[in-house]
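User: Need the bound-state model for flavin-adenine dinucleotide:
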Amino acid sequence: MRVFVLGAGIIGVCTAWYLRQEGHEVVVIDRQGDAAQETSFANGAQISVSFCEPWANAEAPLKVLKWLARDDSPLLFRPRLDPQQWRWGLSFLMQCHDGAFERNVRQLVALGRYSHESLKALVAQTGIEYQRLERGILHFFSSQKDLDAGAAAANLMRRYGVDREVLTREQVLAIEPALASFAPQIAGGTYTPSDESGDARVFTQALARRCEAAGVQFLYQHDILGLDVEGGRVERVRVRDRVSGVPATLQGDVFVAALGSYTAPLLRPLGVALNIYPAKGYSATLRLRHPERASVVSMIDDARKIAISRLGDYIRIAGTAELAGYDTRLDTPTARVRCDALVRRYDEVFPGVADLSEPNFWTGLRPSTPTNIPYIGRTRLPNLWVNAGHGTLGWTHGAGSGRAVAELISGRRPALDFGFLGTSGCAVTGEGRQRVAV
Ligand SMILES: Cc1cc2nc3c(=O)[nH]c(=O)nc-3n(C[C@H](O)[C@H](O)[C@H](O)COP(=O)(O)OP(=O)(O)OC[C@H]3O[C@@H](n4cnc5c(N)ncnc54)[C@H](O)[C@@H]3O)c2cc1C
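Assistant: Bound-state model below.
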């Protein structure tokens, strides 16, 4: 079968890899000149199978309300005259109760485990190097109240088989001694030893090269303009070469949309209604002046909700979310406040360790769903598949999502309890049924 994979982020490239392994002819199309140039470019670098709670929980509405007016708040909702934003917001609110939280966490844990296994096997098979650190993820808290909440979350997550320990301040420092100078401001932490970190861009690009070597064709610098439907099936993808401006239509048997946040607008004209909305996030990558004093364990600073990950001689600080449409500007006042806050906080926790003179700022749009669960599977058009909406966890779930969609396209049910689109549902209450309709 000739399969077109639309999008060369972590999700599209992993999809292409596994489809090729299944023996399909694969063509990947992307508007950029290389893989992983958009949201997969400079994310928080965490493979967080065990830190996977969705944003939507019973306390979220109050927190979001409190944060509304603050430019530096971890989650910022900027109301717009945009029906998609309101649809997303309302669905998000409907997920803010314990029943939905539990249902969503179960699926995120299942996909995370499957993905972690897939990633490990893929790395063993290909030998790809991407600054991988198998040191776990450490979550540190600055107040006893927040630590208590973190400990309660750890207890809850253990119910789903997640391996998350609660730590005293001394135990936090034993796991990451580089935090020593910040110790007085650490109340304690939680730790998931099986989690990992590594550079998503480096991994994705290396995998794209392996795909090419295995016979996958990459059509970079091509805008995808739309899909032509005939007789209830997608017949062609319409593209335009960004360099020459020349348009073309390409015929295929199967199409997989893996365009991150842009998947929803591309498929909307076909009547495929995906509730994916962009959540803008930022990162700062700093060169280390004193690598010997820098952390190696990937961490989350709970007070600021930011991730800190070591990437060789660099440190990546990432976080915050802004629901404000498809805006990737870094030169707005809000963007400046948010980027500066990342650097300032890093220097507060690790004084003098990084060179602050040339921060490398970046922004990306998390393809967010109200549940944080991605859409993986078949749409109502039988040869149109989706692998999108991975929100905060696309790097974590990339390998598993790619493998799962390739298995589904090849006629096999992946071995995990997950509400794949277009299937008869999963054991998780209602989710599968609801998802058949898109
Ligand atoms: C600040 C931040 C921190 C994060 N930290 C983490 C983390 O620590 N761990 C984790 O697991 N996840 C993290 N994420 C989430 C993760 O980065 C995303 O979920 C993931 O990158 C999404 O991958 P994707 O392939 O779906 O999208 P993308 O990487 O955006 O890929 C989509 C591709 O489609 C192409 N495209 C789009 N529209 C068109 C078109 N019309 N024509 C042609 N091509 C098109 C784009 O060029 C792009 O290459 C973070 C995200 C952000 C923003």
